[in-house]
Amino acid sequence: MSTLRGYRWLGWGALALGFAFLYLPILLLMLFSFNSSRLASVWAGFSTRWYGELFNDRALMDALWMSLKVAFWTACAATVLGTMAAMVMTRFRNFRGKSAFSALITAPLVMPDVILGFSLMTLLVSMGSIPGFPARGAMTIWIAHVTFTLSFVAVVVSSRLQELDISLEEAAMDLGASRLTVFLKITLPIIAPALLAGWLLAFTLSLDDVVIASFVAGPSSTTLPMKVFASVRMGISPKINALATLMVSAVAVAAVIGWFFNARAEKRRQADLQLARQDNG
Questions:
Q1: pLDDT tens digits for 101-118?
Q2: For residue 86, what is the domain's CATH number?
Q3: Does residue 202 contact residue 74 with C-beta atoms inside 8 Å?
């Protein structure tokens, strides 16, 4: 009994160390965002001055707005293209070149960011001589981000499509529904959680990327990760701590809201199941 209790305390200790390793640096970063000192690692008293200076930093705010715009449109385009690729890989089972198509779709998942960024930069430079092709800037960052994020969306959506009972679609078509109607009325509502997960994953990957964006960005287009990376090389500013605290807080609030709605939907579903059992009984 004592041995079992000792293993239990050892397990709880290992779990606590794991959580401390993951979240203690984030908590310290949030704490030092309220530091009055210009040195980010020396505590000199409580102050909110860096939040005011953060919002007055025009360059940092422009970089944040650039990143949010690129990430939003990247997630939207990657969700559409990734869903189309997933439909091809799961619904069209036999066509010439399917193996090559699947390999090309999933290649960015295992390709180093440096290689992918350099190859995209070479492609964009070579296409720069085409009349009307956009110069290196926000548009080229968007193209590069869509290129590698659609692979993640395709994998997430295809895994959900493989679990989908195809007999539901076949039954709808037997009743006279067209393929478009079947997709909009049957397939799309079922795979909606996977689409949302793929959208959020693409948005996060685009917002977080610094390597690929550094290769394809122009002189007048700087994303937030690029700005933060450049400022950290010259010394950590408490404004970066304040920015990180706001981003962590926004993610935490979004996670709590999502959990609340999921819990309410699950409670409603359980109530409907219980009511159905009572009716059947």
A1: 888 888 888 888 888 888
A2: 1.10.3720.10
A3: yes
